[in-house]
User: Which sequence fits this backbone?
C-alpha cells in the first residue's frame, strides 16, 4: 500500500521533472549576447540573431532549436574561414539559453526543486524502505515477470530515456538547460554559483547512488559484505567524487576526483590538465604524483592483495552507479561464450587505444609535434577517443543500456582501467572465488545474477575456483547461492584451483 | 565403435555421459522424454518464483552437446529388449503396450538413469484437477497453469520439496496450509532442535503449518476440480475440512521404474532385499537393484541416480539415497566402468544441503534424528533462533561423526577431512574457524560455540583463531 503510494509519487515527480523542460519562456537580449560572445564574434552574432532579439518565445523547443540553428550557421562560417577560436561550443549555448529563460521555473527554482527532486526521493524511499520489514535474505521474486527488468516495454522505455538523457547531456545540453536550473539552489549552496551541466549530472548521479544504494543495502541486508561495500561506494561517490572537487575549486585549487585513475580518467595527461597541475604549486604537483602513483603502484599492489574489486565494486563511480542504480538489471548480462569472446577483444582493444592515445598526447605535449611517428595525428586520436569511448561508450551505452544489456556494459566491454586491473587479477593476485567442495547443485542463480556475464556455475559445478579477469567482486554470486558454494577470498596466489579436479569432492573411488 | 545409450538426462545420466566422453571416444546417446536439454531440477522453484527462466537452469550451453559429440534424443522409451539390446520409443498417444511402432535404437551398453516420481498413497481424490506433485518440468508447467488465479493451497507432506513448494506458492501471494504428519517438521531426518527451528521459521514466513495432521481425502467439485481437503482426526486435533483450489503432494519420491515393471512380477525369495523380476528379468524392488559396481543383473545394463536401489549399500549408507550429489557420484563412477576400468561405487563422507526459506542448511557425515547410544552430541544455537551448529561424536573415542549447521556456511573439504580422519570434538571446536566459509565481515560465532562447550563439559579449550587480517595478507 505504502509502496504503491511511493511509486505513484515517484512517477508523478519524474513526470513533472520531464515537464520542466518546457516550462519557461525565453527572451534573447543583446545584453545576453554581449555576455556570451567574444568581442570579435559579437557582431556576427548580433546579425545572425537579429530576428530573435527581444522576441518572447513560449515554446522552449522552438527557441532552443532556432538558437542552435543560428549557432550552427556561425560555426559553419568560422570553420570555412578557419577561425577556430571563434567557434561556439555547447556550454555557451547552454548559458545563453539559461540567461534567456524567464517565467515560473526561473522564479521558483527552490520550490520546483523540492517538487521534482524532493518528491522523487521521497517517493522512492517510500517504495524502498518498507522492504526492510520483510525477513532478510535473498529475494529475487518476480524479477523475470517484471517488464522493467526483462527488456520488455518498460525496460525499453527506461533505456530510451537514459540514452536520450546522455545524448542531450553530451551533445545538446541546451535542451536540458532547465534541469540545470533546477539544481541552481544546490549549486549556490555548495559552490556559490549556477549549476553547470556537469554539476547537474554529478548531483543526479550522486542522488541515484545514494537512494538506490539504500535499496541495495535493504535488499542484501543479510550480508555484511554487501552492506559495507555499498556504504563504501556511497561514501566515495558523495564525498570524494562530488563534494571534494567542489571544495577544491572553492579554495582555488585545481579540482580533481582523487579516486579517478588513468586510463579511466583518460584526460589525465591532456595538455590543459597537465599545465594546470604544473602551474598550481605544491598541491598541483601532489595531484600529479598521486594520479601517476595510483596506476603505477596503487593498482597493482591493491589488486595483488584484494583483486580488482577494491576498485570496481568498492570505490569506482561507474561501478558505484552500476551496483546501485543498475542492480535491478544485473541479470540481463549475456553469459554466452560468444559474449565472453567479444568482451576480451573489445576491452583490450579499448585499453590499447587509450594507451596509444595517451602516448600521442604526451608526445605532442613534450615535442610540440602533432604527428606521432610522423603519421599518427594525435589531436584526432584524442578527439575520437573522447567522442567514441569517453562519451558514447561509457555514457550513452554504458548507462543507457542498463535495461537492455545489464548494468556493467561499460565495465565489462569498454573500461580500459578494468582491463588493466583484470590482467593483474587474472595473473598475479591472491583473489579468487572459492567453490565449496561438491556442494553445487547447478541451479544457475550465480550465473544468472552475475553482472559481468561470468558463467560462475560452469566453474562451481566442476569444483574449479573462479579466477576471471572480469570479476568485479561484487559478491552477488555468493549472496544468491542457495547452497553456500561460493566465497570471495584472498589467500596465497598459488592456492587458486585453476584446473578442475577429475571428480568432485565426495567420491572416493580409486584413481 | 561401442554405442553407449543413457536413458535419462538428469544429473546422473549427464555426468556419466560427460565423463565417458572425457575418457573415451565411443558413441554416446542420451535419451529423455522430459526436455531437450539437461536442466537443473533443483532450480525448478526459482523459475516459478521469477528468479530465473528455464534457460538459466541449463548448466551447459546448447552447443556443448554437439561439441562433445553427445547425441541427444528427445523421446519416451516404451520398452527395452535386453536380449536384442534394443530400446523402443513411444509415439504420442501410443497406448498399445505391445506395438513397437515408435522406432528403436540399439545399444552395446545401457545406463538407466530414470530418476524418480512423486509418491501418491492412494488417497481419495488424488487424481482430481489441481492435485499434483512437483518433480518434472511438466509438473512445473501444470503448476504454473493451475495456480494462476487461485487463493488457497494445501501442501501435504513435509520434506524438502514441500518447503520449496510452500515458498513458491507464497511468493505468488497464495495462502498456504502445510499439512505435516509428524509433530515437528522433518523430525524423521532432523534432530528435535533443528526441526523446531525449521517449524518456527516456516510459520514466521506466513505459512500455516499444521503439524500432526494427516490427509484423509481430497474433495472435488462437479467439474472434477479440487475444492477442499479433509484431514484425519487424531488425538491431537479433530479432522477438518480446508478449502483450497490446489493440493501439492510432496510425500516423498520413489524410483521411476514403471518402464521396467511387468503386470505380475513374481516375488522371488524371502531374502533381503526381496525383489521382483521386471521386463526381461531385470531385478527390481523399490528401485532397480544394483550391486556395488552399479551393475544390474542383466549384462551390459547399469543403473545410476534416483532410480537405483543398492543391494549392498556402502557402509553407513542407505539402500536408497535420492539426492543430487549421489546421482552425480554414481555418474562419475559408472563412466569408469563403462570405459574399461570396473569401479566400485564409493561415496565418501555423506554431505547434503538445502535451504528452508532463508535458512541455509548444510550437513556432513551422519546426524540421525534419533541419537544412537554410542554417539554423543553437542548443540549450540544462536539467540536469533535461526543459526545453529550440531556436532555428533563418538562416546568412546570422541571422534566427530557428523554435523549440521544452519546459517553458517562451512567448508566441505575441511569437514570431510575431519570426519574421515576421526578428529576429536575438542580438536574440531578449537579449529572451527578453519571450517568457516561465510563471506568476509560476517559475524563469527566460533568463540561463542566453544564457550558453550567449555561450560557444558567444564573444559577450557582455546580457539585457534584464524589468522588476522594483516597477518593473512603478508
Ligand atoms: C523440486 C526439487 C528440488 C530438489 N532439490 C534438491 C536439493 O536441493 N539437493 C539435492 O541433493 N537433491 C534435490 N532434489 C533431488 C534431485 O533433484 C534428484 O535426486 C536428482 O535430480 C536425480 O537425478 P537423476 O539423474 O537420477 O534423475 P532425473 O533428474 O529425474 O532424470 C531422469 C530423467 O529420465 C527421464 N526418463 C525417465 N523415464 C524415461 C523413459 N522411459 N523415457 C525417456 N526418458 C525417461 C525423466 O523424464 C528425467 O528427465 C530435488 C528434487 C526436486 C524435484
Ligand atoms: S563472479 Fe560473482 S563476484 Fe564476480 S562479478 Fe560475477 S557475481 Fe560479482
Ligand atoms: S548458485 Fe550455488 S548451487 Fe547454484 S549453480 Fe551457482 S554455485 Fe551452484
Assistant:
Amino acid at each position: 500500500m505504502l509502496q504503491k503510494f511511493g511509486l505513484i509519487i515517484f512517477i508523478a515527480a519524474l513526470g513533472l521533472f520531464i515537464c520542466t523542460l518546457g516550462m519557461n519562456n525565453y527572451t534573447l537580449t543583446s545584453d545576453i549576447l554581449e555576455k556570451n560572445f567574444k568581442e570579435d564574434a559579437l557582431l556576427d552574432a548580433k546579425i545572425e540573431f537579429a530576428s530573435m532579439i527581444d522576441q518572447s518565445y513560449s515554446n522552449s523547443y522552438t527557441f532552443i532549436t532556432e538558437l542552435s540553428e543560428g549557432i550552427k550557421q556561425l560555426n559553419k562560417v568560422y570553420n570555412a574561414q578557419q577561425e577556430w577560436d571563434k567557434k561556439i561550443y555547447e556550454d555557451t549555448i547552454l548559458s545563453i539559453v539559461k540567461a534567456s529563460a524567464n517565467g515560473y521555473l526561473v522564479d521558483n527554482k527552490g520550490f520546483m526543486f523540492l517538487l521534482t527532486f524532493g518528491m522523487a526521493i521521497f517517493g522512492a524511499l517510500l517504495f524502498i524502505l518498507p522492504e526492510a520489514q520483510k525477513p532478510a535474505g535473498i529475494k529475487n521474486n518476480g524479477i523475470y515477470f517484471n517488464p522493467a527488468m526483462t527488456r520488455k516495454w518498460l525496460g525499453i522505455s527506461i533505456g530510451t530515456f537514459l540514452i536520450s538523457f546522455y545524448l542531450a547531456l553530451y551533445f545538446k545540453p541546451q535542451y536540458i538547460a532547465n534541469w540545470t536550473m533546477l539544481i541552481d539552489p544546490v549549486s549556490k549552496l555548495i559552490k556559490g554559483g549556477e549549476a553547470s551541466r556537469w554539476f547537474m549530472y554529478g548531483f543526479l548521479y550522486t542522488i541515484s547512488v545514494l537512494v538506490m544504494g539504500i535499496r541495495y543495502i535493504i535488499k542484501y541486508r543479510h550480508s555484511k559484505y554487501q552492506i559495507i561495500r555499498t556504504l563504501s561506494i556511497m561514501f566515495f561517490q558523495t564525498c570524494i567524487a562530488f563534494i571534494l572537487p567542489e571544495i577544491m575549486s572553492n579554495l582555488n585549487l585545481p579540482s580533481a576526483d582523487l579516486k579517478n585513475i588513468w586510463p579511466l580518467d583518460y584526460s589525465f595527461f591532456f595538455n590543459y590538465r597537465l599545465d594546470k597541475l604544473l602551474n598550481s604549486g605544491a598541491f598541483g604537483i601532489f595531484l600529479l604524483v598521486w594520479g601517476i602513483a595510483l596506476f603505477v603502484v596503487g593498482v597493482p599492489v591493491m589488486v595483488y592483495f584484494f583483486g580488482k574489486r577494491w576498485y570496481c565494486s568498492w570505490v569506482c563511480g561507474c561501478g558505484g552507479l552500476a551496483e546501485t542504480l543498475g542492480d535491478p538489471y544485473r541479470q540481463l548480462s549475456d553469459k554466452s561464450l560468444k559474449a565472453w569472446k567479444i568482451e576480451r577483444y573489445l576491452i583490450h582493444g579499448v585499453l590499447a587505444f587509450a594507451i596509444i592515445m595517451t602516448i600521442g598526447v604526451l608526445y605532442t605535449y613534450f615535442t610540440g609535434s602533432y604527428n606521432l611517428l610522423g603519421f599518427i595525428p594525435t589531436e584526432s586520436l584524442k578527439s575520437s577517443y573522447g567522442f567514441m569511448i569517453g562519451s558514447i561508450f561509457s555514457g550513452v551505452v554504458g548507462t543507457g543500456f542498463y535495461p537492455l544489456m545489464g548494468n556493467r556494459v561499460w565495465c565489462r566491454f569498454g573500461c580500459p582501467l578494468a582491463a588493466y586491473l583484470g590482467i593483474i587479477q587474472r595473473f598475479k593476485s591472491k583473489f579468487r572465488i572459492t567453490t565449496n567442495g561438491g556442494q553445487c547443485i547447478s541451479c544457475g542463480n550465480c550465473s544468472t545474477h552475475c553482472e559481468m556475464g561470468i558463467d560462475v556455475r560452469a566453474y562451481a559445478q566442476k569444483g574449479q575456483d573462479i579466477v576471471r579477469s572480469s570479476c568485479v567482486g561484487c559478491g552477488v554470486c555468493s549472496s544468491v547461492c542457495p547452497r553456500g558454494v561460493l566465497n570471495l577470498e584472498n589467500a596465497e596466489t598459488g592456492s587458486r584451483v585453476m584446473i578442475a579436479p577429475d571428480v568432485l569432492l565426495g567420491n572416493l573411488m580409486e584413481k | 565403435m561401442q554405442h553407449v545409450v543413457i536413458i535419462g538426462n538428469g544429473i546422473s545420466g549427464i555426468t556419466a555421459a560427460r565423463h565417458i566422453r572425457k575418457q573415451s571416444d565411443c558413441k554416446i546417446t542420451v535419451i529423455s522424454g522430459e526436455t531437450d536439454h539437461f536442466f537443473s531440477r533443483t532450480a525448478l522453484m526459482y523459475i516459478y518464483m521469477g528468479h530465473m527462466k528455464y534457460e538459466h537452469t541449463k548448466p551447459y550451453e546448447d552447443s556443448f552437446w554437439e561439441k562433445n559429440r553427445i547425441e541427444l534424443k528427445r523421446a519416451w522409451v516404451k520398452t527395452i529388449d535386453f536380449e536384442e539390446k534394443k530400446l523402443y520409443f513411444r509415439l504420442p498417444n501410443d497406448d498399445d503396450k505391445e506395438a513397437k511402432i515408435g522406432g528403436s535404437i540399439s545399444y552395446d551398453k545401457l545406463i538407466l538413469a530414470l530418476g524418480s516420481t512423486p509418491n501418491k498413497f492412494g488417497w481419495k481424490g488424488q487424481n482430481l484437477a489441481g492435485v499434483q506433485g512437483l518433480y518434472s518440468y511438466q509438473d512445473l508447467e501444470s503448476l504454473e497453469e493451475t495456480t494462476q488465479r487461485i487463493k488457497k493451497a494445501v501442501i501435504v507432506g513435509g520434506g524438502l520439496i514441500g518447503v520449496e513448494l510452500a515458498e513458491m506458492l507464497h511468493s505468488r501471494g497464495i495462502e498456504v496450509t502445510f499439512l505435516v504428519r509428524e509433530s515437528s517438521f522433518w523430525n524423521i531426518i532432523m534432530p528435535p532442535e533443528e526441526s523446531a527451528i525449521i517449524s518456527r521459521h516456516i510459520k514466521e514466513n506466513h505459512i500455516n503449518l499444521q503439524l500432526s495432521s494427516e490427509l484423509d481425502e481430497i474433495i472435488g467439485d462437479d467439474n472434477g476440480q479440487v475444492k477442499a481437503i479433509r484431514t484425519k482426526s487424531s488425538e491431537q486435533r479433530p479432522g477438518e475440512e480446508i478449502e483450497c483450489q490446489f493440493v501439492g503432494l510432496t510425500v516423498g519420491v520413489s524410483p521411476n521404474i514403471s518402464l521396467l515393471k511387468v503386470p505380475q512380477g513374481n516375488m522371488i525369495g524371502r531374502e533381503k532385499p526381496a525383489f521382483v523380476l521386471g521386463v526381461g528379468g531385470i531385478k527390481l524392488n523399490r528401485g532397480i537393484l544394483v550391486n556395488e559396481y552399479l551393475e544390474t543383473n542383466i549384462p551390459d545394463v547399469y543403473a545410476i541416480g534416483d532410480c537405483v536401489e543398492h543391494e549392498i549399500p556402502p557402509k553407513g549408507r542407505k539402500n536408497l539415497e535420492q539426492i543430487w550429489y549421489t546421482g552425480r557420484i554414481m555418474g562419475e563412477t559408472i563412466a569408469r566402468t563403462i570405459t574399461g576400468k570396473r569401479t566400485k561405487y564409493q561415496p565418501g563422507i555423506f554431505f547434503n544441503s538445502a535451504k528452508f526459506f532463508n535458512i541455509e542448511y548444510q550437513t556432513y557425515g551422519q546426524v540421525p534424528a534419533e541419537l544412537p547410544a554410542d554417539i554423543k552430541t553437542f548443540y549450540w544455537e544462536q539467540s536469533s533462533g535461526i543459526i545453529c551448529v550440531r556436532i555428533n561424536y563418538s562416546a568412546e573415542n570422541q571422534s566427530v561423526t557428523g554435523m549440521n549447521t544452519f546459517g553458517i556456511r562451512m567448508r566441505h573439504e575441511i569437514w570431510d577431512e575431519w570426519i574421515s580422519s576421526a578428529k576429536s570434538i575438542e580438536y574440531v571446536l578449537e579449529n572451527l574457524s578453519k571450517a568457516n566459509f561465510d563471506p568476509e565481515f560476517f559475524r563469527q560465532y566460533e568463540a561463542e560455540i566453544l564457550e558453550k562447550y567449555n561450560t557444558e563439559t567444564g573444559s577450557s579449550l582455546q580457539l585457534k583463531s584464524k589468522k588476522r587480517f594483516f597477518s593473512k595478507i603478508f
About this structure: Residues 337-367 of chain A form the longest helix (31 residues). The two ends of chain A are 61 Å apart (CA to CA). Strands of chain A lie at 25-27, 56-57, 101-102, 371-372, 376-377, 431-435, 486-490. Chain A has a mean pLDDT of 95.
